Amino acid sequence: MLAKKVAKSVSCDKYYSPLEWKLMWSKTEHKALPKEPPSIYWAYYALAKLGRWHDSKATGIVGWEALWDGWFVLSQLLEGAILMQQQIKEM
C-alpha cells in the first residue's frame, strides 16, 4: 500500500521526457492533456495499455511482456514524433 501511495505522488516527468508522457497520454486517454504531468502510477498502467494489457484477471498486476511491448510501442511513437519535429524544422 505504501508503494502505491508513493507512486501516485511522484510525477512521471522524473522518469519520462515531456514528449514521452504526452505521447503515452495521447494514445491511452481520450481527453485533453493535463496541465501537470501525471503520476508514475498512471505511467505504469499507460505503458501496460500500450502493450495491449487489459487487466482481464482483475489483479492489477502487469506482466513483463506487456510492459516490454508497451515500451517498444512507445519507442516507435517517440521515433516518429522526433522525425516529424525534424521535418517541420526543415520546412
TrEMBL record:
This is Transposase Tn5 dimerisation domain-containing protein. Gene3D superfamilies: Transferase Inhibitor Protein From Tn5, Chain (1.10.740.10). SUPFAM superfamilies: Ribonuclease H-like. It comes from the Bacteria.
